[in-house]
Amino acid sequence: MTFNSPSFFLFLFIVVTVNYLTPTSFRSKLLVFASFVFIGLYNFESLLTLLFLSSLNYYLAKKVVANRFFYVFTVALNVCAILLFNHFSTFNTGFGFSVFSAHFSTDKFFIALGLSFYSLQNIAYISEVRFGRMIPETNIINYFLYCSFFPKIISGPVMLPAEFFPQVEKTTITASELIMGFQRLLLGLFKKMVIADRLVAAVSSVFDFNSDYAGITTIAAAYLFTLQMYFDFSGYTDMALGIGKMLGYNLKENFDTPLRSTSVSEFWRRWHISLISFFTKYIYYPVVYKLREYRKAAALTGIAVTFIISGWWHRIGLTFFCWALCHVVYLSFELLTKRWRVKLSEKINKRLYQLFSVFIVFNLVCFSNIFFRAESFEKAIRLVKNAVGNFIPKNMLSGFVAPLAQGGHQIDEFNLFISIFLMVTVLLFERKINLVAKSAHLRIAYVVILLLLIMVFGVFNSGARFIYMQF
Amino acid sequence: MKKISSKIVSSISILLLLLIGLSRLFDFALRQNCNLKASYVQKAKINADVLIHGPCEPLWFISPAIVDLQTGLKSYNLALSHSDFADNYLHLYFYLKNNTAPKYLFLFVTPESMDANYNTFNTYRFAAFIGDSTTDSVVKECDSSYFVWTKIPFMKYAFYSSKINFDALQGLKHNFTHRTLPHFADGYEPPLQIKWDNHLEEFIQLYPKGYTFKWSPLREKYLRKTIELAQQKGVKVYLFETPVLKESMRYLPNRSEIIARIKILAAHYHIVYKQFDYMKMADSRTNYMSALNLNINSSRIFAEELGKYIKSEQFQNETPTIH
Hints:
The structure holds two protein chains of two kinds. Chain A has two domains: 6-172, no CATH class; 178-470, no CATH class. Chain A has 22 helices and no strands. Chain A has helices at 6-21, 24-42, 44-64, 68-91, 106-110, 115-130, 140-148, 150-153, 161-168, 175-207, 215-246, 264-270, 273-290, 296-314, 318-336, 338-347, 350-373, 377-388, 396-404, 410-428, 430-437, 444-457. In chain A, helix 4 runs antiparallel to helix 6 (115-130), helix 13 (273-290) packs across helix 14 and helix 14 (296-314) runs antiparallel to helix 15. The longest helix of chain A has 33 residues, at 175-207. By secondary structure, chain B is of the alpha/beta class. Chain B has one domain (2-318): Rossmann fold, CATH 3.40.50.1110. Chain B has helices at 2-32, 37-43, 56-61, 64-71, 85-98, 133-142, 144-147, 155-158, 161-176, 199-206, 217-232, 255-268, 296-318; strands spanning 50-53, 75-77, 104-108, 236-241, 272-275. The radius of gyration of chain B is 22 Å and the shape is globular. The A-B interface holds A 6, 175, 179, 198, 410-411, 414-415, 418, 442, 444, 447-448, 451-452, 454-461 and B 1, 4, 7-8, 10-11, 14-15, 18-19, 22, 149, 154-155, 157-163, 165-167, 169.
């Protein structure tokens, strides 16, 4: 039951209605119950894992203030959970498809829904308590809600305790919040069903098959994967934020038009913001602080450690190590050449420099994403080799368009063209669309157009998966 | 609150109206598309003597032009790629609604056709015909998750939009240009110019101990329904199989067992299950694109052989018996 499945909409309608009508004092209990139902329907093992880990963290949090051992132990426990999740999800290809599973299996306890996301939240909570920035939560229901709140359980956003707990006591839900939430949810559905899911076929035909395509085809597939991932994940986030809003919660923004970034560091301030905020606060800053006397070397070490851990958080393996390494190189280069680049930008037309920078950053991100998407290191290297060799095929239709359009039938070319057209349109008007989506007033034209586009161009039989569900 | 309520009602009303209108437009457009066999056979008077039916193998191997040259009859290729028997059944039903019953129906049946892992029911081909009771009952049985959504305006098209939008646009184009003939006029689509697609090697890698066919009761049900529908209309039905590459047989341990079951089923309806396994082309992969698929040259030879067979059957059927 993920956000774009029909059964979820029925579930959501019931929860939003009951939550709206329920007195404030019972809302957190209701939402914990709804979240447990949501997770339990995914699979029961996920619910047991969450209950076990959350309870343990809740009780150990009371001891970490006085005893450093308990702090190290609790952090290690959560790190182990993430490690085991990564280990089992790497070797379990069936992950994510086991809805309403009837049979227990040990693997399912470790590849529990959202485990690697709420484990980060547990680490954040324990650290905040340990360093005296908050007192331990006294209500276990509130703590369960922090860990299991169903709009964010699948793939975040990662909420820090200070961002979440104050909202639990909120008293009213207004009609404007319901409208804002609905409009945001609709935008997410549109991004996921109309753009991201339509790009799956084109990306898959290059990344999942062992044919050696021309360079231009491989590069186009890498571009399309980055865009697919952006629309898939930002679509998911829009849905999560929209649902959160309808339930009276403001979840953290995860994206801020990242594909318009003019530097890789700016890109990371705008892409998967909640995860990067977590890593910056709990890894980058402590490392830099520890090595502060070495100045630039401290920052470079901080970048390296942060991104290697971020790669490892996504998946243990050579492909994600290379993905992380790419970003370490990019960010280190940016740090070391900052003065030189500022001087260069002053000599060139500002608009031209910005456009050029956006183009370069996008290409660098796409290159690193080849490692992110490839199923193995060998496959990634093969794709990189393909990208640089035999760049332009002899026949553009059969060598370039056909592989991306699943063989090049007219119908598949039409679908590819529609997907790209819709995607470019959304990217061009992204900021305006976001503004309307976040509006507190019901925008009839916006709602009707989006629903119509979803009905005409949406993919309804994609299997309801999100890319970040695997992490 | 009143303002918001009226806005919500307006949004829903506008959306519903647009979806109903769009649904009607798609109904019309898809029925106008000559390239869709389901639409074409219900519009055009084909009235063939011989109907070739089944999935991609007969679609690619049997050119009615070659068969007609041998038999002197008029044949039409009703086969569709990736289709199962339920798919075949509905297409035959559409054909018989608007055309005179053919003399002969040649239905492609192999052990692969009886296994649900091969081919499928392509629901989107029937979206424009939802509402017809026969279509509804088949779609409901073969794709129930789709069928529950068809009551919502336009949802019958939205569900498989990536398969339908293009066809609807093409249908509108056919209507504006008054087109009456499909791109493949006799239903035959020539196979791709592939030498050998390495599918067998991948198959062996996937099933090193061989693949055991599983008999699907649903496939059997619709095979029976297809035969019964044709026989009700007085059509003489033949089940047939094209020559299968011999080297691939060793990876299909229960193939002969399934063939025997098909023969029992054929005998029940007093019809022939014709296999062309005596043809020499089965000995060499140079005649194939893959283990099941003949290449363009050998498919021509096979179509000629089928034509000769039909001719001999026609001779036997039409020669008065001596009492």
